[in-house]
Specification:
- The strands form 2 sheets. A 6-stranded mixed beta sheet has the order 4-3-2-5-6-7, sandwiched between helices. A 3-stranded antiparallel beta sheet has the order 1-9-8, with helices on one face.
- The chain has helices at 19-36, 53-60, 113-123, 182-187; strands spanning 15-17, 43-49, 67-78, 81-88, 101-109, 129-138, 150-155, 160-161, 177-179.
- The chain is globular and about 50 Å long.
- Helix 3 links the parallel strand 5 and strand 6.
- The protein is α/β, with parallel strands linked by helices.
- Helix 1 crosses helix 2 (53-60).
- It has a single domain, classed as Rossmann fold.
- The chain has 4 helices and 9 strands; from the N terminus they run βαβαβββαββββα.
- The structure holds inosinic acid and magnesium ion.
- Magnesium ion binds next to loops.
């Protein structure tokens, strides 16, 4: 039970991407990734924790090439407010990516700071190739120069939860993507 504010139930939240649409987008992205990568080359997927875990789990089950998975811990939001600095909590440089084919994966591209920071650390290791994939890309101006090769769909510039995305570590388990109104962020949520 929330202490104060508006505490929505999952059914109160305005759906931005339905469960069926998410499924369709994931399959389409997987098909594009398979088409671009040789069946003979191992692909190293570097997924950004925690938001990418649900997307990662669904996507990899549609990929047909040999795969390795690495998880990178990065954090740039506190509640619905973006922090200035992106924390890369695990050292990407500890990964062995030199000469490897790498796919950087995140659930959402917002300001682009997170992906740009992780991508920079990957590129510094001289991989054989590196591409970036996001399920959602917010329609907003970006000062960071990052254009993912694979984008599921564009969404409005609103704060969303579900399908791995959280507000203070809540709502990640929703099977759809929903908008979280600002008033709900302080009030928690009832499910
Ligand atoms: P960026 O660095 O601003 O592109 O933010 C990317 C990271 O912030 C993602 O990895 C998400 O974890 C988080 N994020 C961005 N937008 C949202 C949102 O609308 N809801 C929840 N998390 C978000
Ligand atoms: Mg978050």
């Amino acid at each position: 039970m929330a202490a104060s504010g508006y505490a929505p139930r999952r059914t109160d939240l305005p759906v931005v991407i339905s469960e069926a649409r998410v499924r369709h987008l994931v399959r389409r992205l997987a098909a594009a990734i398979c088409a671009d990568h040789s069946e003979g080359d191992t692909l190293v997927i570097v997924a950004v924790l925690k938001a990418a875990v649900v997307f990662l789990a669904d996507l990899i089950r549609h990929l047909t090439m040999p795969l390795e998975i690495e998880l990178v811990n990065a954090r740039s939001y506190s509640g619905t407010r973006r922090r200035e600095a992106v924390e890369i909590l695990d050292d990407v440089l500890e990964l062995e990516l030199t000469g490897r084919h790498v796919l950087l994966l995140d659930c959402v591209l917002d300001s682009g700071h997170t992906l740009a920071a992780v991508l920079g650390a990957i590129v510094a290791q001289a991989p054989a190739s590196v591409k970036t994939c996001v399920l959602l890309r917010k329609r907003r101006p970006r000062t960071v120069d990052i254009e993912p090769e694979y984008v599921g769909t564009d969404i409005p510039d609103v704060f969303v939860v579900g399908y791995g995305l959280d507000c203070d570590n809540r709502w990640r388990h929703l099977p759809f993507v929903a908008e979280l109104p600002e008033a709900a962020a302080s009030g928690g949520g009832e499910e």
